Amino acid sequence: MAKASTATGDQNVVVEDIGPSRKRLTITIPAERVTDQIETSIEAVAMEAAIPGFRKGRVPRSLIERKFGSVVTGEARNQLIASAYSEAVEKHSLRVVGEPEGKDIESIEVKPGHDVTFSVEIEVAPEFDLPALDGIEVKRPLIEVTDDMINKHVERLCTNEGDLVSQEKAEDGDFCIGSGVMRSVADGKEILKLEGAVIQVPAKDKEGRGAILGVIVEDFAKQIGHPKPGDTLKVKTKGPAQHENPEVREKDLEIEFQVERVERIQPLEVQQLVDRYGMGDESALRETISMQLNQRVAVEQQSALRQQIARYLLDNTTMELPEGLTARQADRNLQRQRMEMMYQGVEPVHVEERIAELRGSSNDVARRELKLFFILAKIAESFEIGVEQDEVGARISQIAASRQMRPQDLYDQLSKQNQLGLIVQQIREHKAMDALLTKAKIEEISVEEFNKQMEAQDAAKA
After folding, report:
1. pLDDT of residue 208
2. Are the beta carbons of 36 and 17 closer than 8 angstroms?
3. Domains along the chain?
4. What is the DSSP string of 67-90?
5. Residue 184 and residue 256 in contact, taking contact as beta carbons nearer than 8 Å
6. What's the rounded Cα separation, in Å, for the pair 51 and 58?
7. Can you give the pTM of this predicted structure?
8. Which residues does the chain have with pLDDT short of 70?
9. Are the C-beta atoms of residues 339 and 413 closer than 8 Å to each other?
């Protein structure tokens, strides 16, 4: 086990390697610094303490120590540990990922004239070498917007913009709106409660699979049947391995769903769609859709090239990943995938369906996503790739247009959900892969041949 000991400022730091990309820091803060911090904390409390009979800032020190002793030592301990940890990380140039883990930190005693020693374990970005980045061979699929693609898009729009018609009983493809509660079978603990939840009775082509509260259930159709308003459904399943909530992962679950109403989508007629969008006639609608699809084709082509770059990087880079961070990466992976599908213009309902499927993916998928994150971060750093504010604005406008939203509304939504950082990360990663594409060997092939080659590569890895 590798160990290094250094004096960092006026403190001693011992750094130990305790696993893949994992280190233990043992830090000793000298007595003089401890005493100074306690004095500072006493002064801070004395200035704010409100005790009857004394003006603020005039309370005797002995009374402060007697009445607020635990507050003073707790404040001093927190300040000492936080500053000592930050100094140690900076001094040793540690690229920490995730939060530090410390045992019994709260029980550490802080006394004037005594050293303070504590240990924390951290996960750091792995050290690795990048593969050759020049001349990567990739294929560009030649995609042409056809009348059939336009027809299918018009059909989807007619369905998406259709009217909801209440039903007395759900049939295949109908939607049930109500409230859902997810509980652990082991102890009955409530894990998730959602009002206004929506489930869909699987259509014939879904082969019985469906989703409830974001979890895919293989025999969903069999378990729910064809419910009516007022029915109470009980669905049993196992939590997906990559769920964001650790209380759900690989746990036996029971989900109770109260059906409040059943709705069926009545698609619009094409002329109704034309009128709703304020188009002059159907030809104007089709021309607009053709322009949108051509824009989407360009995005899909670039995404296909980037996916091949990502595969090359993953297959040709060796690194040891921090185990703990891999387990906590589930939420970040799903948010990253959601943002990528939004960029590609995938319809919102299909985004959530895909996210539900990804929750059930293997740990290998999560590890590859984490590995790619570190690789692209290193490439972006080596190429000095940054992200400008106008690039963020342009990306938000692009995604908003594909979702028929105002850019400001999408910005507000992402800001509220603390996801603006994902936009920045996505742009940086795309720019990193695009930088490699400028050096790549690109061959253009038909979309049919492209799909055949990609399927063959997937089969070879299975």
Report:
1. 95
2. no
3. 3-124 (3.30.70.1050), 137-155+273-461 (1.10.3120), 163-266 (3.10.50.30)
4. HHHHHHHHHHHHHHHHHHHHHHHH
5. no
6. 10
7. 0.76
8. 1-9, 45-69, 324-330, 362, 462
9. no
